[in-house]
Amino acid sequence: MEIASKYNPAEVEEKWYKYWMDNKLFHSKPDDREPFTIVIPPPNVTGVLHMGHMLNNTIQDVLVRRARMQGKNACWVPGTDHASIATEAKVVDRLASRGVKKSDLSREEFLEHAWDWTREHGGIILEQLKKLGASCDWDRTAFTMDETRSESVLKVFRDLHEKGLIYRGVRMVNWDPKALTALSDEEVIHKEVNGKLYYLKYKVEGDPDGTYALVATTRPETIMGDTAMCIHPDDPKNAHLKGKKVIVPLVGRAIPVIEDDYVDIEFGTGCLKVTPAHDANDYVLGEKYNLSSIDIFNDDGTLNEHGIHYAGMDRFEVRKQIEKDLEAAGLLEKTEPYTNNVGFSERTDAIIEPKLSMQWFLKMDGLAQPATEAVENNTIRFHPEKYKNMYRHWMENIKDWCISRQLWWGHRIPAYFLPKGGYVVALTPEEALEKAKAKVDYPITMDDLKQDEDVLDTWFSSWLWPLSVFDGINRPDNEEINYYYPTNDLVTAPEIIFFWVARMIMAGYEYRGEPAFRNVYFTGIVRDKLGRKMSKSLGNSPDPIELMEKYGADGVRMGMLLTSPAGNDLPFDKSVCEQGRNFNNKIWNAFRLIKGWKTDDSISQPETAAIAVEWFQNKLSETVAEVDDLFSKYRLSEALMVLYKFFWDEFSAWYLEMIKPDYQQPIDTQTYEATLGFFDALMRLLHPFMPFITEELWQALYPRGKGESIMTVLQPGADKVDKKLLGDFETLKEVVSGVRTVRLEKNIPNKEKLELHVTGGHNDRFNSVIAKMCQLSSILSVSEKQPGAAGFFAGTTEYSVPLEDKVDKEAELEKLRTELGYAEGFLQSVLKKLSNERFVQNAKPEIVENERKKQADAESKIAQLKESIAALEL
RNA sequence: GGGCGUUUAGCUCAGCUGGUUCAGAGCACCUGCCUUACAAGCAGGGGGUCGGCGGUUCAAAUCCGUCAACGCCCACCA
Fold first, then answer.
1. Is A421 exposed, middle or buried (0-12, 13-18, 19+ CB in 10 A)?
2. Is pLDDT at A464 greater than 60 in this prediction?
């Protein structure tokens, strides 16, 4: 059978994914085995696979596949998130492109469009994950707005309300004028913006001299909402304003001057205009001094009827216009360039407007407590650990969570308002009516109840994800939740540590009294070569699907993993995928070599092969132990790198070369069987990282039964390691390398057999191996190196290849002298240490002993070098 | 304005509790090879005063102080 010399991933990937699906190998159900659970961070239902998903899901798949191969009952639950605000924005856009405004539709009509959109786009990203090889249990695919999940959300709302943790109130919230909804603090991103500081003149009322107070503000367009001016009680320069009233420019309204030490005397002029409706701090002042509050904005950021002649204009238009008008009226003293922090909506990028409104909130401090402790005491471990600090800091300063959104796409808040005030919380209208009847003393019908128009924050469903995917809220004692919960690992981006991770931990403790997961692996951000975040708008993100077509899913997976230690950003470049693809090819060709051999029972195992097998067996054990250790520390890139080198260098370059029979000669059965065994072990070790090629070759290695898969066999275990053997073997490599260098330097073809002379201590156990790897005719022990020989050292032993005329005496002498110089310098430094009494006294005995050995070795090497030089100089 | 983190080869990173696995790995680079598994390869090689300064110690990439640059998180100075 001819096997192509290049690996073709496209052919095998589809085949094996189908095989895994057909044989239900991803499916998990509770049994006696130890469970291993991961819930996917649900991608947005309308999202398209990007490089961040690739990284994130590759890592999850590695963890799940490895757990499965450790005999655990691995369950990776996939699903999608309804992404309330993001999806609603997309649906609104699509409707707009068809000339339909959201406001023209009823709630029901709009939701119909949203569901259409969800049905059209919802499955795309999950299908794309299959191309990556993701071993999710697709039978469990969940959606944050499907029936089970919706019921869970409503029940939790009702429960937390009953516990008194959910309340309703008028607060200053972050208002997104584009999406027309409130946002939580976490959804606001602060950015530095270059703006101006405007100095406005507020004339003092009834002052004939025309004196005025100067107020510095970044937001002149809000003056219509001013209801006071505030100075510091101890501010001498503004003391004359105490007890006075000042006139708001353009508006002409008089407002009182109040005093509060909140004002910073040094900032601006020390005068602060107070606009309780449009600034969180001013709101606090307003409450304190019982100021009236004038809301001058419409929900979309245009000015309302309080905006005098600016009514109907956008807030930023007004800012420009009002500057001119103030100028014209002589009420603008000056402007200065100024940078300040402005809040932007995470989703729509609109500038946030602080707005007073009635919203639903969840009390957080009680929920936060056990969640804070769990991370602090490592019940839940963060990888890398540095995120613990961030987490603690946020948790200790946690604020109540604004959970209502003025949107339609999402879980509608299960609160029903009563005709004469008050409300009830209930899962269904029927339940609501029942509760209402119990609450009021007047007759009431279903039609009298009005359900809250708002929906819940998307994260109010995501935070239940590890529970709700196993139906742990609705049926808290079901077999699945009892078996799969707590989940094991969570793989996610640090950006959503507060949005999601922290809240899942809280929900986990509130509803199970147990951690949601044991380990959190924080991935980095995928960036381009220039260090920019990959984004659709920049167009700097490669299409993952195209990438996989070009380099193979295994190649891309490897590319992602090789350069992404936990928590570090990943500067992505296609070249790493190339490296991955090359490695696939390397594996492919090693297999081709092995499979090309004919076996012969009648040949006995050559000595070189016996040594090779023994050595590789030990090397394998050593590597397995190393990989185990790295996995336990979640150092996946390093684990992969160890395996990469193990396969490429130890297995291919050393082991296979050692056992390789002469061209077209058969191999002995014993060695062949051992080699197949090693290859099998290597495939198993690599399978979590590169599922497709390893399955393909594992299947081809031996005849396999129907439905069998590498996915479900165990990882190789680590045996005892003969350290001495491994050490000796490293010396052997040095010798082989030395001879190869001689060949290269002297331009000696490989076919020409050479003789190797040894001067000094040498372990001749591996002579047959050295002879085979270097094409030697013999290895002789000599008391002195021949003058016409090219030499090198391995440790303190000198090796040389007699070459007669081929050796350039001068060059050889030069080499030896350089080496001698180095050795003498080294000896000097060792002697200096040893002659330092304090070193000999204070250092640990083994350190001193080591220095003595270095001294002896150096001395013996120097003696040998001198002899060789003397012989050449003759 | 607070807090955290990073700085080691051209690039991406590893170096735990100070001393032979202390200056490493992969990629990139250079040289020679189409050697019958693999040129997506083989063999060999060069390259860093471990961000700067100061200190502790017999001994510092490693511990302490300080400065600098970069990054992240939090924060209401209008």
1. exposed
2. yes
Token representation of residue A85: 């605000």
A317-326: pLDDT as tens digits: 999 999 999 9
Residue type at position A586: K
Give the alpha-carbon dihedral of A807, A808, A813, A819, to 10 degrees. -70
Compute the half-sphere exposure of residue A827: CA atoms within 13 Å on the CB side of its CA: 15
Rounded distance, CA A720 to CA A225, Å? 79
Strand B positions with any atom < 7 Å from protein CB?
A: 2-5, 11-14, 19-20, 25-28, 32, 35-45, 57-59, 72-78
Nucleotide nearest residue A264, measured CA to C1':
B77
User: Quick check: A508 and A486 in contact, CB under 8 A?
Assistant: yes
A794 three-state secondary structure: strand
Of residues A181, A681, A221, A643, the one with CA closest to residue A455? A181
| pLDDT score, position A746 | 85
Contact criterion met (CB below 8 Å) for A709 and A19 = yes
Amino acid at A256: P
Mean pLDDT of A86-108: 94
Establish whether the CB of A625 is closer than 7 Å to any nucleic acid atom in strand B: no
Per residue in A656-665, pLDDT (tens digit) is: 999 999 988 9
Quick: pLDDT tens for A837-862.
888 888 888 888 888 888 888 888 88
Strand B lies under 7 A from the Cβ of residue A71: no
> Which nucleotide is at minimal CA–C1' distance from A192?
B75
User: Smallest Cα–Cα separation from A861: which of A793, A782, A815, A813?
Assistant: A793
- Straight-line distance from CA A591 to C1' B48, in Å? 39
Tell me what the mean pLDDT of segment A249-273 comes to: 90
Q: Which two tokens stand for residue A818?
A: 């350089």
Lowest mean pLDDT among A147-161, A308-322, A367-381, A738-752: A738-752
Strand B and A579 CB separated by under 7 Å: yes
d(CA A375, CA A378): 5
Is the N-terminal amide bond of A565 cis, ω within 30° of 0?
Answer: no
Q: Please compute the mean of the pLDDT values over residues A271-285 and round it to a whole number.
A: 92
**Chain A 340..359 CB hits on strand B (< 7 A):** 340-341
Q: Which tens digit of pLDDT belongs to each residue from A369-415?
A: 999 999 999 999 999 888 998 899 899 889 999 999 999 999 999 99
Nucleotide nearest to A269 (CA to C1'): B78
On average, the pLDDT of chain A sits at: 92
A81: closest CA among A531, A480, A492, A422?
Answer: A492
Beta bridge partners of A255: A246
Q: Which phi and psi (to 5°) does residue A869 adopt?
A: -65, -45
The one-letter amino acid at A730: E
Give the residue with minimal CA–C1' separation from B14: A638
Q: What is the pLDDT of residue A2?
A: 62
Angle value at C-alpha A752, between A748 and A754, nearest 5 degrees: 90
Contacts of A466 (CB under 8 A, 6+ apart): A39, A485, A486, A487, A490, A504, A508, A516, A517
* CA contacts within 13 A on the Cβ side of A422: 10
Report, as an integer, the average pLDDT of A171-184.
92
> Nearest CA to A307 among A293, A321, A297, A316?
A297
Proximity of residue A575 CB to strand B below 7 A: yes
Q: With a 7 Å cutoff on the CB, does A737 touch strand B?
A: yes
Predicted confidence (pLDDT) at residue A835 exceeds the cutoff of 80 = yes
Q: What are phi and psi of A284, to 5 degrees?
A: -60, -45
Which 393-452 positions of A have CB less than 7 A from strand B? 393-394, 397, 399
Strand partners, A404: A456
- pLDDT tens for A578-608 read 999 999 999 999 999 999 999 999 999 999 9
Q: Report the distance from CA of residue A184 to the C1' of nucleotide B5 in Å, as an integer.
A: 27
Q: Give the model's confidence band at A566: pLDDT under 50 very low, under 70 low, under 90 confident, else very high.
A: low
